[in-house]
Amino acid sequence: MYPLGENIRLHLFGKSHGKHVGCILENVPAGIHISSDEMEKDMDLRRPKDGIGTPRKENDIVDVMSGITDGITDGSPILMLISNGNIRSSSYDDIRAIPRPGHADLPAMIKWNDHDVRGGGQFSGRLTAPIVAAGSVAKQMLSAKNIKIAGFTRSIGNVHDNETRNIDDAFSSKKYATRACSPELDISMTKEIMNASNEGDSVGGVVECVVTGLPIGFGDIWFESLDAVIAKAIFGIPAVKGIEFGKGFSLAEMKGSESNDQYFVDNGIKAMSNSMGGIVGGMSNGMPLVFRAAFKPTPSISKEQRSVDLRSMKDVTISIKGRHDPCIVPRAVSVVEAVTALVIADVSIKEGV
Q1: What is the pLDDT of residue 22?
Q2: Beta pairing class for 63-66 and 148-156
Q3: What are the residues facing 315 on neighbouring strands?
Q4: Three-state SS for 251?
Q5: Pick from 151, 208, 153, 209: which is nearest to 185 by CA?
Q6: Do the Cβ atoms of 206 and 154 come closer than 8 Å?
Q7: Burial of 21 (0-12, 13-18, 19+ CB in 10 A)
Q8: Coil, helix or strand for 130?
Q9: Region 325-343: what's the mean pLDDT?
């Protein structure tokens, strides 16, 4: 199992081509109302959309085996299972000893002689399905505390959303297949994905996430800082290769007079800007928490690439068969939301919020 969290603790398990993927969510307090309809909506946002997602279709029905009774948490561990049904393992017969460029195959094959390459095995994005289910529980738990979390697609390939966005914009992105914030961007991002797909290639992008409702002082310092624990968890999502909070790397080009978020009084203390993304010293300053995660292009592409055959130790070429997303970013938005919710829920128990 693969754990996340200290107070609200997630244990993730399964493989892409196993019978199930699933999770155990521990220490969720009793008495929290969990809507199965809301969970289904979250799961639907992760499902591939026609044209821009993998042809692999899974029902992704979440079977809650324990921990939630009549829609209310009972305080015991929540066990959730999701069946794997639409499997084509034969697509991987020719590459069992040929590591796919961009995948975890090479280190995994060297580390474990019996590594299961089918669908990526335990490294597969398939395991993000139970993460989204667990994240739905966390989001509903936080919603009762007026803490809201929503993400959207900030960019795909060379198509960028350059507008200033807030959490309402992020929620509105659920209307569009690409999770863009406008119909015009949805069209442009769809074209970017389809152009790459038609070339037998793939494309990456950036997901932005916004959290509101955190009280001033929420979080901790140094290695337990709020941005540190979020960053660690977000980097656990397959294909994430970068993260920045607020203005991020742009801060390196600013002067302090430009980057500092100056305060004023308006029915409490507020900031005039949000360059820090709502976090200073590892704790919330009361502004919306804002961060962006960069996702690499899907490594499974049909274009011919170079690799090696570990049996003969000779150079070979490889073209990936099977069903793969030409861009995972639209589906990854819900995963980023879920992981963020799990982290915030975990910290909220520690903070007594």
Answers
A1: 96
A2: unpaired
A3: 308
A4: helix
A5: 153
A6: yes
A7: buried
A8: helix
A9: 97
249 phi and psi, to 5 degrees?
Answer: -65, -20
**2, 16, 12: which is closest to 121 by C-alpha?**
16
Residue 92 in this model has a pLDDT that exceeds 70: no
H/E stretch holding 344 reads helix 329-351
- Single-letter amino acid code for the residue at 62: V
Whether residue 89 has pLDDT greater than 60: no
Cα 309 to the chain's mean position, in Å?
Answer: 32
**143-154: pLDDT as tens digits:** 999 999 999 999
Distance, CA of 44 to chain centre:
14
For the segment 92-97, the average pLDDT, to the nearest whole number, is: 71
Residues, the chain, total?
353
Which residue would you say has higher pLDDT here, 216 or 124?
216
Model confidence at 90: pLDDT above 70: no
CA nearest to 128, candidates 298, 334, 342, 340? 334
Residue 154 CA, distance from chain mean position: 14
- Strand ranges (E), the chain: 2-4, 9-14, 20-26, 63-66, 68-69, 72-73, 78-83, 148-156, 159-160, 205-212, 240-245, 263-265, 269-271, 279-280, 283-284, 289-295, 305-309, 314-318
Instruction: Collapse the DSSP code of 16 into the 3-class scheme (helix H, G, I; strand E, B; otherwise coil) and give the result.
Output: coil
Interatomic CA distance for residues 67 and 172, integer angstroms: 32
Q: What is the pLDDT of residue 113?
A: 73
What six digits make up the tokens of 188? 């442009």
In 173-260, which ranges are E strands?
Answer: 205-212, 240-245
Q: Is the pLDDT of residue 87 over 60?
A: no
pLDDT at 309 (0 to 100) = 93
Q: Copy the structure tokens of residue 181.
A: 């914030």
Percent of the chain residues past pLDDT 70, beyond the cut: 94
Handedness of CA 180, 186, 192, 193 (dihedral sign): positive
Determine whether 42 is exposed, middle or buried from the number of CB atoms within 10 Å of its CB (0-12, 13-18, 19+). buried
103: burial class by Cβ within 10 Å (0-12, 13-18, 19+)?
buried
pLDDT for the residue 76:
97
Q: Which amino acid is at 257?
A: S
